[in-house]
Automatic annotation (TrEMBL):
<comment type="similarity">
    <text>Belongs to the sulfatase family.</text>
</comment>
<dbReference type="GO" id="GO:0016787">
    <property type="term" value="F:hydrolase activity"/>
</dbReference>
<dbReference type="InterPro" id="IPR000917">
    <property type="entry name" value="Sulfatase_N"/>
</dbReference>
<feature type="signal peptide">
    <location>
        <begin position="1"/>
        <end position="29"/>
    </location>
</feature>
<feature type="domain" description="Sulfatase N-terminal">
    <location>
        <begin position="76"/>
        <end position="492"/>
    </location>
</feature>
<dbReference type="GO" id="GO:0046872">
    <property type="term" value="F:metal ion binding"/>
</dbReference>
<keyword id="KW-0732">Signal</keyword>
<dbReference type="Pfam" id="PF00884">
    <property type="entry name" value="Sulfatase"/>
</dbReference>
<dbReference type="InterPro" id="IPR050738">
    <property type="entry name" value="Sulfatase"/>
</dbReference>
<keyword id="KW-0378">Hydrolase</keyword>
<dbReference type="InterPro" id="IPR024607">
    <property type="entry name" value="Sulfatase_CS"/>
</dbReference>
<keyword id="KW-0479">Metal-binding</keyword>
<protein>
    <submittedName>
        <fullName>Arylsulfatase</fullName>
    </submittedName>
</protein>
<dbReference type="InterPro" id="IPR013320">
    <property type="entry name" value="ConA-like_dom_sf"/>
</dbReference>
<dbReference type="InterPro" id="IPR017850">
    <property type="entry name" value="Alkaline_phosphatase_core_sf"/>
</dbReference>
<keyword id="KW-0106">Calcium</keyword>
């Protein structure tokens, strides 16, 4: 080698060495199709070292691609289905009278779990289900709308409690969420974000669904695609979210399969059904009504469901049907009008359930058509809580009324029967139906102390792995066990670190041990579980259950009067579940020491899981100041069209003085359209021009629409209109009456006084819109959406006075309600 060759050889070696590049070619470059399952508890997996060979010229170099991260070979797709507001006896797979052939089919192909449990309320169950941790540990001791500033109740699921989907995604899964998301803090549930707690921030590649507790299936005002609000129902008569959501899921599965058939997916499918509003299509209502499933009434239906459950073996042979509660009317004591109304209510709900089962059936059929069914793990949790009694004792055509403390009389609802279930109603059935559909268990949604609130059926199907087709499992489990089961089935370890954040351990345990027929009767891997919602609480331990007795009825809502001292104000019961699986024989008086030990165990679990401080009053959470862009502000300004804002980021005009001012220009030929609105057909308000006339309308629960309107249309040019509300100087802190004045260019044109106003909240699934209405109109007689403003908008201003709902005023209300209860 001459000096020139030696120089370049030495320089090349120094250059490559300086950059850490290999000096010799490997035997073989890394394939572009290489994959790896890292089997790591630390996520995401770091990029591995480059294994190729780099020379100064590409032609002399060898490439090597980082291997694609994939789950273990043969890992299944996962379809996790969660039905809303459905009791243990609400479907035919677990003895109910409503036909659910898709669920029945999956139950015959897989396993039915008869002792799965939820938390008794929407947001808490969903948080627990998707994280594998107890609901208070992840900030959801209450629904998102009821968040308070305590770790167990702030509705903030921190990065230390990552969703299972995030870890599956970082192990190579495609992840998607369809349907209800009730786990975004309300002050973040807007198109402006932040999106940390939206599905796309929690590990889901794709989201199509609604953010909030429920929504109209005909005109969902809170529907998102990823983080963008969408309104696909406009100009589409008959459009229904239940079908549209199934279409979206089918398209997603089909596209994933066609694009990358080797990549498994995880889908969380959470329809709004069967939560109110009950919005099936007319064809399903007609089909179910023609079957006359409920004609015998709620008492006879409960007995029929109980008999079915015994025959199916989904309840123990020694189970007893609890006596019908004295505080509920019996069917035989009702008059003809009451029966007619209540039958229509339950037929519409049942149609909603059957319709939903059918739409999920289309997804299952897609899996079969694409050859994906055998290697798809389907876990169908049949209720996020027990049946809802939030329809009040007689039912309601407008669920918003319940949360504002108003109950409809039967006479008011009879004319609405033909429209029940249509977009002209936001309906819910009478509370006794909830007890019947929770058969054989006592109580309902919100009641975490009894299985009527917490026990749900679950079906698990995976033909490639689960061979005991039609098997029944009676092990005691909880929704926190679902994520550990999925990871165990897939073969992915629980992560200890996600995105650089140390993870809290799961509270759940895997249920895979129970899949094989030889372990059908194996002891449950879960021996202890606490429960708590709104002061109703219980502790399960090794076959025993200690629980409180509800102090108020769920249908009382804000009118309920729970004890102020929640910890000591509830009475307790004790049950031996082996001998008494339906909680009918209270042993508290016979075994006080056992009860005391279980109460102490509950407190240990409460402290460990951030359950304290306890609260049983819905009114007590009304004064909570929550974070977000609306917090602490008394002035809001909008200078352009601004649609689809969720209620918690909007100015709150309830229970306070306020002035709304609109500055704009009317063009030649006049102007019409919405200036600002919140809510819609079932409650809300709107400031708009109708036939050129300035108009302010309050929609009070679709019962009254007080209107302030100018007699004359506006002429072309610049104008300022204002609506000022002044509450009465004394009165209740919520719903207080007052006087409103509409002014045009500084002069009053309409003044009206009201004896009361909306007390708690406007329709939550409708948005706050500036310059347009993207939901439903506050008055169908005045306009139809979107009704955009046709003038030139300069500015909308809200000036808010002090709230009437001071902590002192609300505390006084709570204490007064408690005194009435004690009397």
């Amino acid at each position: 080698m001459n000096r020139r060759q030696l120089f370049f050889s030495t320089a090349k070696a120094a250059l490559l060495g300086a950059f850490g590049l290999p000096l010799a070619k490997p035997a073989r470059a890394q394939s572009a199709t290489a994959t790896v399952f890292p089997d790591s508890k630390v996520l995401p997996t770091p990029t591995p070292p480059f294994k190729g060979f780099i020379q100064p010229n590409l032609i002399d170099s060898a490439p090597a691609w980082p291997p694609a991260i994939t789950p273990p070979e043969g890992a299944p797709n996962v379809l996790l289905i969660l039905i809303d507001d459905a009791g243990f006896g609400s479907n035919s797979a677990f003895g109910g009278v409503v036909p659910t052939p898709t669920l029945d089919k999956l139950a015959k192909a897989g396993l039915r779990y008869t002792q799965m449990h939820n938390t008794a309320l929407c947001s808490p169950t969903r948080a627990a289900l998707l994280t594998g941790r107890n609901h208070h540990r992840v900030g959801y001791g209450m629904v998102a709308e009821g968040a308070t500033g305590y770790p167990g109740y702030n509705s903030i699921t921190g990065p230390e409690n990552a969703h299972g989907a995030k870890a599956l995604k970082q192990n190579g899964y495609a992840t998607a969420w369809f349907g209800k998301n009730h786990n975004v803090p309300v002050w973040e549930a807007s198109p402006q974000g932040p999106f940390t707690h939206f599905p796309v921030g929690e590990g889901y590649d794709y989201f199509y669904g609604f953010v909030g507790g429920d929504t109209s299936q005909w005109q969902p005002g809170n529907l998102f695609r990823n983080t963008t609000p969408i309104h696909p129902y406009m100009d589409k008569p008959g459009w229904n979210l239940n079908t549209a959501m199934a279409d979206e899921c089918i398209d997603y599965i089909s596209t994933q399969t066609a694009t990358d058939p080797k990549r498994p997916w995880f889908i969380h499918y959470a329809p709004g059904a069967t939560h109110a509003p009950h919005h099936p299509t007319p064809e399903w209502i007609e089909t179910i009504s023609a079957m006359h499933l409920f004609d015998a009434g709620w008492n006879a239906v409960a007995e029929r469901i109980f008999d079915n459950q015994k025959k199916l073996g989904v309840i123990p042979a020694n189970a007893k049907l609890p006596p019908w509660p004295d505080f509920l009317p019996k069917w035989d004591g009702l008059n003809a009008d009451e029966k007619k109304l209540y039958l229509r209510q339950i037929d519409v709900w049942a149609a909603y359930m059957a319709y939903t089962d059918h739409e999920i059936g289309r997804i299952v059929a897609t899996l079969e058509r694409l050859g994906q069914f055998d290697n798809t793990l389907i876990m169908w949790v049949c209720g996020d809580n027990g049946m809802s009694a939030e329809g009040s004792m007689h039912g309601t055509p407008n669920e918003v009324a319940y949360f504002n403390g108003f109950a409809f009389a039967v006479e008011q609802m009879l004319p609405m029967i033909p429209a029940w279930g249509s977009d002209k109603t936001y309906p819910h059935f009478a509370a006794p139906w909830a007890f019947a559909m929770d058969t054989p268990y006592r109580w309902t949604k919100q009641v975490a102390s009894h299985f009527g609130g917490t026990r749900t059926g679950m079906v698990v199907t995976w033909p490639k792995r689960i061979k005991d087709a039609g098997g029944i499992r009676h092990q005691f489990h909880h929704v926190i066990d679902v994520v550990p089961t999925i990871f165990d089935a897939v073969g992915v370890p629980q992560p200890t670190m996600v995105d650089g954040i140390a993870q809290t351990p799961w509270d759940g345990v895997s249920m895979v041990y129970s899949w094989d027929r030889t372990n059908a009767d194996a002891p449950s891997a879960r021996t202890t579980q606490y429960f708590e919602i709104l002061g109703n609480r219980a502790i399960y331990h090794e076959g025993w259950m200690a629980n409180t007795i509800p102090a108020v009825y769920p249908w009382e809502g804000i009118a309920g009067a729970p004890p102020v001292d929640v910890l000591n104000g509830f009475k307790w019961e004790l049950f031996n579940l082996k001998d008494d699986p339906t909680q009918t024989n209270d042993l508290a008086g016979q075994e006080p020491e056992r009860l005391k030990r279980l109460q102490e165990l509950w407190m240990i679990e409460a402290v460990r899981n951030n359950v304290l401080p306890l609260n049983a009053s819905q009114i007590a959470i009304l004064t909570v100041q929550r974070p977000g862009p609306a917090s602490g502000r008394s002035r809001f300004e909008y200078t352009a069209q601004n649609p689809s804002n969720q209620f918690a980021v909007a100015p709150s005009i309830l229970n306070r003085p306020y002035t709304i001012t609109a500055e704009f220009e009317v063009p030649q030929g006049g102007a019409n359209g919405v200036l600002v609105t919140q809510g819609g057909r079932f409650s809300g308000y709107g400031l708009y021009l109708k036939d050129g006339k300035p108009t302010f309308t309050m929609n009070l629960l679709d019962l009254a629409r007080p209107k302030w309107q100018s007699d004359l249309p506006l002429q072309p040019g610049k104008h300022t209109i204002a609506f000022e509300w002044k509450p009465e100087p004394t009165g209740a802190p919520i719903g207080r009456g007052g006087a409103g004045t509409l002014s045009v260019d500084g002069g009053p044109v309409a003044t009206k006084s009201l004896p009361h106003t909306q007390p708690i909240l406007w329709a939550w699934d409708e948005t706050f819109d500036v310059g347009i209405d993207t939901g439903t109109p506050v008055d169908d007689a005045d306009y139809q959406v979107p009704f955009p403003f046709t003038g030139k908008l300069d500015k909308i201003t809200f000036d808010l006075g002090d709230t009437l709902m001071s902590p002192e005023a609300i505390k006084a209300m709570v204490e007064e309600l408690a005194k009435k209860r004690d009397r």
